[in-house]
Here is the input.
Amino acid sequence: MSLLIYGAYGYTGRLVARRAAEKDLAPTLAGRNAEKLRAVAREVDLPHRAFALGDTTALREAVSEADAVLHCAGPFARTARPMVEACLHEGAHYLDITGEIEVFEYVASQEARAVEAGVMLMPGVGFDVVPTDCLAAYLAQQQPGAQYLELAILATGGGVSGGTAATAAMNAGRGGAIRKDGRITRTPAAWRTRCADFGRGPTDVTSIPWGDVVTAWHTTGIPNIITYAKLPDAAVRLLKASNYAGPLLRARPVQSFLEAFAKERASGPDASTRRTAQSFVWGQARTGSGRAVTARLSAPETYTLTARTALESAERVRDGHADPGFQTPAGHFGTDYILDFEGTRREDLP
Ligand SMILES: NC(=O)c1ccc[n+]([C@@H]2O[C@H](COP(=O)([O-])OP(=O)(O)OC[C@H]3O[C@@H](n4cnc5c(N)ncnc54)[C@H](OP(=O)(O)O)[C@@H]3O)[C@@H](O)[C@H]2O)c1
Here is the structure.
């Protein structure tokens, strides 16, 4: 049973590769830059093959030798399509660590082809969306018939990788998104705030377009979903300002500048920061008549958790725990999947 990890020399890909080596999983590492890839492969002593996603022959050849692919090269709006196509063509299961709404939507739209090909497609096996998806599933079970779901995240003491910053920059000027009456609906950026209790006192959180507006709907069927994050005040001000500068921010030269700027400044948390930082998820499911259940999760730092959940998910799928079609983490692995990871804890709130 073999696993291909693409994007293995990126910040997150490297964490995944190191963990794979620690666990003796023997995946093949891949990426487009032969030199950078060789450096990681040498560090972790794993086989590697370099190819660009645009090289369809090399991509298909590599995927044809894998039972499952864990795609770690993003922004996924630019990279998911060729890899999903190769997986469907070669019959390999597909997993990635995206948090991008349009990517979840695109992958979900491939459901019929995936079923026909006997291939499982599971985007979002990182921090976004494993913990949030599991909390959503838990709340839906606790509150049958819920019509409204709100999820909020808080990351403390950590930092952001170049890839995450570049993905955020790529989405600058696109506003927000929620699920309303079963449909994805665009909103202004940072259009709503509310209070969430992550266990550190009441905290103001701001609406963000998080992948759960797609995945939590697939997992729970709850038709109205809003996702929030605790953001620095300056970020909230910037997001609100972006509502007046959307077309400018979306212009190609401005996008390129923002992405390069973001990438250059964000290097990702170092090992000691990753050990001490933490992440939290708060959620509430409500019926139409206002009956509500509330719960929260605490978990390790976001990139540490991403490496663990992504690799564990890929390992399980590679070993045959796969159902063809589009799958969400909690829908497939179960509501309590997140509790399998060291350092995670779920708590009901009054
Ligand atoms: N959902 C989550 O919780 C979560 C957690 C962590 C990361 N992520 C996402 O995962 C992605 C990677 O994050 P990161 O921290 O690893 O960023 P990173 O350090 O910038 O790494 C990005 C990797 O993707 C590769 N890449 C980018 N575009 C490519 C393309 N068109 N073809 C082939 N390879 C390409 C890069 O290769 P080059 O160096 O050759 O460009 C690099 O290896 C980001 O989109 C980030 O938002 C999500």
